[in-house]
Amino acid sequence: QRNKCSTGEPRFWEMFAKQSELERDSFLQDVFPSGFLWGTSTGAFNIEGAWAEDGKGESIWDQFGHTGHVYMNQTADVACDSYYKTSFDVYLLRGLHPQMYKFSVSWPRIFPDGTNKTINSKGVDYYSELINRLLDSNIEPMVTLFHWDLPQALQALGGWQNESIIDTFVNYADFCFSTFGDRVKFWVTFHEPWVISYAGYGTGEHPPGITDPGVVAHTILKAHAKVWHVYNDKYRSQQLGKVGLVLNSDWAEPKTPTNPEDVRASERYLQFMLGWFAHPVFVNGDYPDILKSQLPLFTEEEKSWVKGTADFFEFIKYAVSNRLVIRIQHLIFLI
User: Fold this and answer.
1) Which residue numbers in the chain have pLDDT < 70?
2) Helix, strand or coil for residue 24?
3) What family is this (predicted)?
4) pTM (predicted TM-score)
5) Do residues 241 and 185 touch, judged by C-beta distance below 8 A?
6) Is the peptide bond before 213 cis (omega within 30 degrees of 0)?
7) How far apart are CA 150 and CA 129, in angstroms?
């Protein structure tokens, strides 16, 4: 029980804090395991440019920039111009000698209105060519289905606040599996759903700039699970690929480890960032106990359906995202 908080949940920080320095630093002298893949990654909106060319639809990030919500009115209309530089980009990649390249498909580039009623063949050809060039260069493609750039047409219907988007996302994912899955063996459903939920629908600093993160996260988790089951039931036996999601988190420790209030505050912080999405998928199909009163409920059927819907755990931690946490008057303060 020493590594559990009062609700029975494991304490993230305490499990790692008990590691010896020898255990913690062993990787500095050891070798990476067999099968470890070095790679690099991008997101479609960040690099592709060609925001409205060859039939691409508008995304929420396109509109966000065009309506003056980005610093100095900057846009990604051109960005790195990667849409027109496939061969040059892969040439640059080869110079890095990666074994894997993770990139995202722009949903509105292949489904301009977000649905499969209209499929943009030029967008499909762009990704197909990229995948083929990567494989010809002995670089394993890893494809992210959603890296934040929701089709604006779907946002007009409520975006991730409207549960009908689940089946729309499944149709989009199904198309990608059937079109590219003969060559792609690693899939990511959502890149950093915490950021989507918190920054896009919580604080509003990201598009679409509205609030209601609990509902959004709930919808995203169910969409992820449904896509995983589609791949598992329909494609896995033939394509032999893997499907997961990318989670991000800052790291938090109690400012005073002997202070129970600080310990509980740091645990709350980590459960809010990492446990919000990791707990349903990797533990028991439900949210951490400490968050349940603030979030929608999963049915028992949904819990069994969400649990275990990842073939790998992909985690992002940024270099400066460490926190010392104290608890004062029931609030978390960052020092």
Assistant:
1) 1-28, 319-322, 326-335
2) helix
3) Belongs to the glycosyl hydrolase 1 family.
4) 0.90
5) yes
6) no
7) 23
